[in-house]
From TrEMBL:
Annotated organism of origin: Cnephaeus nilssonii (Northern bat)
Listed name of the protein: R3H domain-containing protein
GO MF terms held by the record: nucleic acid binding
R3H domain residues: 1-57
Family matches, as Pfam families: R3H
Length: 151
């Protein structure tokens, strides 16, 4: 076992190594050898007969997703994991968008449109002279008769 671990350390191309299933004593010895060598070792498997050890170099520690796939008995595929993560993000974003729109918006979306409120909110601008009426507009220059004639 020590020779296999030593060869693994020397081989710069390998970042992880899977050992064959072994009994508890052998696994314990392997874990000790790996710990002394400064590597990470994790046991996987459901029962003692198929329980195996996988060792990793410290600088290439496995991610949580990778560990989950090993615990479930599957091989780790980084491309598949990336696709799965993107799909989860997409479904989460769609769920958030649906939660932001209330039931009223859904009910009347055929009348007001999907993005009408957002478009209207972007077009609104505050009146810069709100509350400030010029003095010339405050005085009525015409008479009541002139105003009645205009109407």
């Amino acid at each position: 076992m020590e020779k296999e671990v030593s060869d693994f350390i020397q081989d710069s191309g390998q970042i992880k190594k899977k050992f064959q299933p072994m009994n508890k004593t052998e696994k314990s010895i392997l874990h000790d050898v790996v710990e002394v060598a400064g590597l990470t070792s994790i046991s996987f498997g459901e029962d003692d007969e198929c329980h195996y050890v996988r060792i990793f170099k410290k600088e290439f520690a496995p991610s949580d997703e990778e560990l989950d796939s090993y615990h479930s008995g599957e091989e780790w595929d980084p491309q598949e994991a990336e696709d799965k993560r993107k799909l989860e993000e997409l479904t989460q974003r769609q769920g958030e968008e649906a939660a932001q729109q209330g039931p009223v918006v859904d009910k009347y979306s055929h009348l007001i449109g999907k993005g009408a409120a957002k478009d209207a909110a972007h077009m609104l601008q505050a009146n810069k002279t709100y509350g400030c009426v010029p003095v010339a507009n405050k005085r009525d220059t015409g008479s009541t008769e002139e105003a009645m004639n205009e109407i």
